Amino acid sequence: MFRLRFYFPVLVGLCAMGCAIGGGSGSGGGGGGGGGPAGTAGADGTTCIKASQVSACSAATGAQVVCDPATGQWKTLGPCPAGKVCKESFPAGKTTANCEDAPTSGGAASDSQTSGGDSGSTGSDTVSGGDTGGTTTDASTKDEATVADITVVKDEATTKDEGGCTPNCADKECGDNGCGGVCGKCPNAAPNCVEGSCQANCKPNCTGKQCGDNGCGGSCGVCPDFAPVCDQFKCIGDCQPNCGGKNCGADGCGGECGTCSGGTTCSAQGMCVATGATIPAGGTCWGKSNPCAAGTQCVVTTDSAGAKCLPDQNDGQACGASIGYCKTSSECLWTNKGKTGAKCYPNLPAGSMCSSYGIGLCSDSSCVWTAKPPASQKCFADGGLGAACGDFSMGGCKLGLECTQDTKDSTTLSCMKSAAAGAACGPGIGGCVDGADCIWMTAAKTTAKCLPPAEPGALCGEFGKSTACVPWHSCAPDSSAQGAPRHCRPMKKVGETCGYGIGFCSFVGQCVPETAGASSGKCLPAGPKGATCGIGVAGCISGYGCKLDAGMNTGTCQDVCEINNYYGDGDCDQGCIEPDPDCF
């Protein structure tokens, strides 16, 4: 017992129609290795035998072909009409082909469909040779023809064809026929269909592709949930990529804004810079766009350098200013609410208890209050487009989406698309991709747009103007007057002069007057809860203010909301260390 596997690429069209496959010829028509729609002719341009081959069926496409007596080569006449298949016969020893009605069920093959062998026997699974020939049933046909194989039979006759589409397989051995069918199936010896030609070796090409065919029957990637549709080899969906002002790095939607050529690397600002300009460990990086060497990050310090490339810190190690930041798998968090020390905490999975103090934040979910504070916080899975968000025991939004008010006056929020710079945003529309702020364009607050960070010296912090500035700059008021204009001014290092119209300090320092009533100050180190502070002495870290003593010159750093009795006053004060109950 055997199966005619070596004939399979030629016979698959025959098998799908229920024709006989066998080992011999005879009055029973038992077998024949090459009858029915499966053709004997090669592709256009291949040699034919003028003396014995008049016309035939193409082995690759099933179309009618003729042996050109002038050139001795096969030439395509065209596919058979819908509902008919190409069949060969051998009158007077010469091969001829005609379009005939497609068979609808299995049965004994005629003498014109089979060629010689020894003997045949009837069976439902296999056919063996015999002196008088044999027959086969539909069950045998199904054993050799899978659902995928049957698509080859439909290559030139599809529903779309019947509607007026004309298949085109000129110069094609395989691939799309232009009408939803295929031009042929490649043999095992050359299984790769590349631009209509069957090839034994294929080199995948995914240059510039996020998804789709790699040219060799494989895939260039699977699109993520937030951009599930593969269109022109790009993943599209809820997220809108943002590559404004960038020529490399992340686009905010899981893709890339471009790659850097040889000799350059992508900086943290998304620009290709010379690899040789990489700042080594310990080198000064304040105000520079050059990337720090691998394994280091640009960390603000309290010395005159302002910032240095310091080594990444592991889980459990101290981190922060003048020490170093954590690896991407963890976060640098305060160990307590008093902010007296910080270390690297690993990112936590959904369902874990979490906190910004002494526990850790979430890796692929949001750290949310389980009930109105005081209560615990937990990692809740982020929702997709349209999901409710922003309440207790409710996650945030997936990448590319932002939790936004449903309407201007609504108390409910939903996950909406993050728009690129220049696009509309706001309640009922959505927020902005990283690097852009959603800003009301007028005092009437009727429209808002996503604005990119403002350039050095540009107006900021007004209606129609971004509140964010490019790196190493901050939006500083020109004077202490209420409503004074703001401009993007350079951030100051510890020890430098600071103040209105000058610029303010990095987060490790605070602008402190050197004398009472002075209009400017100096960036002095900022202390945690309980640290000594005051005029010409020191400032306090974010969330703490300097509560002066009776002399009004020095004091201690305390929670700004406690100093001003803000808790429970009816106003939501976002700068509080403890959660302000008025914010919930």
Task: Describe the structure in your own words.
- There is one protein chain.
- The chain is mainly beta.
- It is 5% helix and 24% strand.
- The protein contains five helices and 33 strands.
- The strands form 13 sheets. Strands 27, 28, 29 and 31 form a four-stranded mixed beta sheet that branches. The chain has a three-stranded antiparallel beta sheet with strand order 1-2-3, with no helix packed on it.
- The chain is elongated, with a radius of gyration of 38 Å.
- It starts with 7 loop residues before the first helix and ends in a 21-residue tail after the last helix.
- The model is unreliable at 1-38 and 105-163 (pLDDT under 50).
Q: What kind of sheet is the major sheet?
A: 4 strands, mixed
Radius of gyration: 38 Å
Strand-pairing-aware structural class: mainly beta
Number of strands: 33
Average predicted local confidence, pLDDT: 78
**Which geometry do the CA atoms define?**
elongated
Number of helices: 5
In angstroms, what separates the terminal alpha carbons? Answer: 79 Å
List low-pLDDT spans.
1-38, 105-163
Task: Determine the strand fraction and express it as a percent band.
Answer: 15-25%
Give the % helix.
under 10%
Give the structure's gist in a few sentences.
By secondary structure, this protein is mainly beta.
Based on the model shown, name its key terms.
584 residues; mainly beta; four-stranded mixed β-sheet; three-stranded antiparallel β-sheet
